[in-house]
Amino acid sequence: MKGIYIDCIAEKLGLKTWQVENCVELFAQGGTIPFISRYRKEKTGGMDDASVAEVKHWAGVFEEMEKRKQTVLANIEAAGALTEDLRAAVENCVSATLLEDLYLPYRPKRRTRATVAKELGLEPLADLMWNVRTKNPRADALRFVREGVPDAEAALSGARDIIAERLNENAPVRESLRAVLRQRRITAKVTKAGETAPEADKYRSYFNYSFPLSRIPAHQLLALLRAEREGWLKLGIDADPSKSAAGIRYAFCKEHGYPAPELDAQISLACEDAWKRLLEPSLTGEVLREAKEKADRESIEIFGGNLRQLLLEAPLGQKRVLAVDPGFRNGCKLAALDEHGALCWHGIIYPHPPLNEKIRALTTVSRILAEYRIEAVALGNGTASRETADFLAKVDMPEGCRVWTVSEDGASIYSASDIAREEFPDEDVTVRGAVSIGRRLMDPLSELVKIDPKNLGVGQYQHDVDQNLLREKLDETVEFCVNSVGVNLNTASPYLLSYVAGIGPALAASICARRAEQGAFPSREALRDVPRLGAKTFEQCAGFLRIKGGDNPLDDSAVHPESYSVVGRMAADAGVSVRELVGNAALCAGIRAEDYVTDTTGLPTVRDILKELAKPGLDPREQASSFAFDECIRDIADLRPGMELPGIVTNLTAFGAFVDIGLHDNGLIHVSQMGVKGLRDPSRVLKLHQKIRVEVLGADVQRNRISLRLISDGQHKGE
Questions:
Q1: How many helices and strands (H and E) does the chain possess?
Q2: Please, which residues have CB within 8 angstroms of residue 525's CB and are 6 or more apart in sequence?
Q3: If pLDDT is split at 50, 70 and 90, which confidence band does 679 have?
Q4: Residues with Cβ < 8 Å from 471, sequence gap 6 or more?
Q5: If 0-12 CB within 10 Å is exposed, 13-18 middle and 19+ buried, where does residue 346 land?
Q6: 3-state helix, strand, coil in the chain (%, to 5)
């Protein structure tokens, strides 16, 4: 990659040039984000996964820009207009906007007013005016009166059209005006359709709206743009036409010199026309698109952060679980799962109206709890969840068995997916949904990777942002979570394995096929026998796969096979076997990392090895904890200002946090009610599914809106 791109990436991300160079080189060699950030810290200077991912993103952006440059240069050369200065300007460009500005004068265009003027032979007159070689343009214009040009005014009008187009295609002029527009206010006016359409009511606060474009919150800009797409608003930027035209005239005079009064009047008219007809519509669109790109990235970052928290939610572990998908008329769907998540039994009970079969339901649940030795109950948080929790409170639970509330977001999407049909071809969607709820309690990560993250209810305007950027971010997030936790090679589903660094869906299927045919993998090394799993793939994935109870204890750790010899030397120097060293924190604490640094193994890697040896295979996720809503709150009408309630954070956005307090509708803690002045990022205070205490500020029964204030970001009393 060219040095200009390396330097630009380093400046954008606040990195050293050598860090970016090495990172790009590792990507070119087939490196993945998890592998590079975990096992190549010497090369990257300890860059984390987010920084490595940013380098990969911008490297891709500049690779595409380089291809675009070749197209631009070829087209300009074909037009016979490529000079050495222009070639250098294009080749040294690191801005896509500037690149298109440079190309604009030579880009094939539709027939314009300037084109028509040129066809009428008025370009020589425009040249005289453009180069300030006339003091009396009207007198010169008389020489161009001919068929199609009836008088001097028509000639001057055509010449001004040509000049206006040149001004529009002038790169410095365009960038100067963009800078002005970026500092102006975005405006919104309601359209005639929006004045009467009921669908537009949700945008009523924007019907006569103005806000500095540089400071507008991402969610507000995305809402404005959506309303404009739907036809309810007309957006603009409040630039002053006279000042904008004057700025264009100043740029002209700076380049060409100050014209005589009569010519100045013509140039001023051309500047006014260039702004109103060409530059304002074009640049307003560009600046709004630029602002949207920024808003997209902010929203996507929030979505990625929420998804990361969701996927790394505390697992209950391998327990025998009874999953309950609550409901009223259609009953509560039950699914008994063994400790590996396999379906043992399923059925339906009707403890609620209209059937009210409470006794039969109690008998059924009690029987299933005993028959399948259930250790935990996973209760979905959807419709009838509170009522079902009350019902389950009457059941005599086995010792140690507790009821856990589990988010249902995306469960219905999973139950109707190809993945669910493949897993449970003989079961209907209700059974699959219940199984998903139970498995989420056992291991959220393993289950949630089967669902498109956009359906997990943790985003902000996810359908309005750039879908390619969103997909890139979500894939990176899932990949990070899977690899940071590690994957059991002998039990993982193909969907989970596909996110392990370097593997992908096809190899994941091959690994599972090999496992089904020949049994469990005895070691990481046995992976090399999988068809089409080459040396590079093994290098990328091996450190993130775990072998429980295998031949080599290091296979159940994050120590990479390329470093096994280092551990062997440590063990030999300590006078113990590798198996005795693994997990011996006291022994590891006495080992000097500096003694094992080599040309191929740097100090950061050795320190990581020692940290992993002290606590091998440590799951970064927290332990699961239970939760209960306030029993006195059953309806929004029960809420009163000043009430203090327990709640669970269900979504984080740029404007606040949504909190489940046990009602059908979530409440909102606005950022201004989080106790941090000027807070713009709620994730600095709260985390997804965090258990908190809130104060009720207000409840709008008609609109089902609940306003809350954060009291405590810790667990509520009694937990």
A1: 31, 15
A2: 561
A3: confident
A4: none
A5: buried
A6: 55, 10, 35
Q: Letter for the amino acid at 482?
A: V
Pairing assessment for the beta strands 644-653 and 402-406 based on DSSP bridges: unpaired
Residue where the block lists tokens 């959807």: 382
Q: Dihedral, CA atoms, 373, 376, 377, 379, nearest 10 degrees?
A: -160
CA angle 404, 345, 410 (to 5 degrees): 50
Q: How far is CA 160 from the centre of its chain?
A: 47
| Strand locations in 551-702 (E) | 644-653, 656-660, 667-670, 691-700
User: Which pLDDT tens digit goes with each residue over 30-81?
Assistant: 999 999 999 999 999 999 999 999 999 999 999 999 999 999 999 999 999 9
- Which residue type, as a one-letter code, is found at position 406? V
Domains of the chain: 3-106 (1.10.10.650), 113-303 (1.10.3500.10), 321-442 (3.30.420.140), 483-614 (1.10.150.310), 636-712 (2.40.50.140)
pLDDT given at position 635: 86
Q: Is 185 helix (H, G, I), strand (E, B) or coil?
A: strand
The answer to whether 210 touches 264, Cβ cutoff 8 Å, is no
What whole-number distance in Å separates Cα of residue 429 and Cα of residue 264? 75
Chain segment 292-331, per-residue pLDDT in tens: 999 999 999 989 999 999 999 989 999 999 999 999 999 9
Query: Is 411 buried (19+), middle (13-18) or exposed (0-12) by CB count in 10 A?
Result: buried
pLDDT tier at 714, thresholds 50, 70, 90? low
CA–CA distances in Å: residue 276 to residues 182, 206, 580: 18, 25, 79
- List all residues 6 or more positions away from 420 whose beta carbon is below 8 Å from its beta carbon: 414, 429, 432, 436, 450
